[in-house]
Design brief:
Elements (H helix, E strand, L loop, with lengths): L7 H13 L4 E6 L9 E6 L5 E3 L20 E2 L5 E6 L6 H9 L4 E6 L6 H15 L2 E6 L1 E3 L4 E3 L3 E3 L5 E4 L14 H10 L5 H4 L18 H7 L46
Parallel strand pairs: 5-6, 6-7
Antiparallel strand pairs: 1-2, 2-3, 4-5, 7-10, 8-9, 10-11
Helix pairs in contact: 2-3
Length: 270
């Protein structure tokens, strides 16, 4: 299952892009630079584009190493600047803001969510677009694997947060939309009201010449210092996925008897 960026399987995707003069985003489970550590959940943009590694593995059950490339942004076709987030990364508004802060005007999300978070997936695609004045293009796994239903519903959102196109739950459906990245750039340049990504760092420029630029966000300061801690931190019960892998992360098929050496998962009554 594990590949590298130079694996022949990935090479075939790259070659297909070149031969057909198209851009693509491809997902792989990438061998860690340190083979003794868990792999990365990785995406490649086009044949020669940036490489993105999942920054926020789905806690506490995804045994991926946290991404170490930050949020790459690369030049795309037709004046676009592209960034890719992988699945659960899209639930974090901070990552969408990071992409926009680095210039992305098209934010791509690839995911494999089942129906439990169908609505939340759509909401976050829309809010990521609106709060950062950028297009969001989001594609999700579709179909049934014998255990879960995956909702598909590929969604393209305008930079005003409205849905331009949304697919259905058909695994064979192709969702298309027409985007104009320059309109994003113009909105960012010319909007005053609701240019919130600018206003975040330049508050009250009507009430104070030039606006207030000093950081007023406690969590930003604490995160920068490596001291991020919630007021309810001491009561959080599910806080370390390693408890499920006491002998180290186990990759590949489950044992035939269906058991592992891991401790049983706790259940919480609400």
């Amino acid at each position: 299952m594990l590949l590298t960026i130079d694996s022949p399987e990935i090479g075939r995707f790259k070659q297909a892009c070149k031969e057909n003069d198209v851009w693509g985003v491809f997902s792989l489970m990438e061998v860690n630079d340190d083979p003794s550590k868990p792999p990365f959940n990785t995406a490649i943009i086009n044949s020669d584009g940036e490489i993105a590694r999942k920054l926020q593995p789905w806690v506490p059950i995804e045994p991926w190493s946290p991404g170490n490339y930050g949020m790459p942004v690369c030049d795309g076709p037709k004046g676009s600047k592209l960034a890719v987030c992988i699945c659960h990364d899209g639930m974090f508004p901070e990552l969408a803001r990071e992409a926009a802060y680095k210039g992305a005007n098209v934010y791509i999300r690839i995911s494999g969510y089942s129906t439990q978070v169908n609505d939340q997936w759509i909401w976050t695609n829309r809010t990521n677009a609106w709060q950062n004045l950028m297009y969001t293009i989001s594609v999700n796994l579709a179909g049934y694997d014998g255990v879960f239903y995956y909702f598909g519903e590929g969604t393209v959102c305008n930079y005003d947060g409205n849905v331009i196109q949304q697919g259905h739950r058909n695994p064979w459906e192709i969702v298309t939309a027409e985007l104009f990245p320059r309109l994003v750039d113009k909105a960012r340049e010319n909007w005053a009201l609701e240019n919130n990504i600018f206003n975040l760092g330049c508050r009250a420029y009507v009430g104070k010449p030039g606006g207030e630029k000093e950081n007023y966000l406690t969590w930003v300061e604490d995160l920068a210092k490596g001291e991020y801690k919630l007021p309810w931190d001491s009561s959080i019960r599910i806080r370390d996925g390693w408890k499920y892998y006491p002998d180290g992360v186990k990759l590949g098929p489950m044992p035939k008897n269906g058991t592992t050496s891991a401790k049983p998962v706790e259940t919480i009554s609400v």
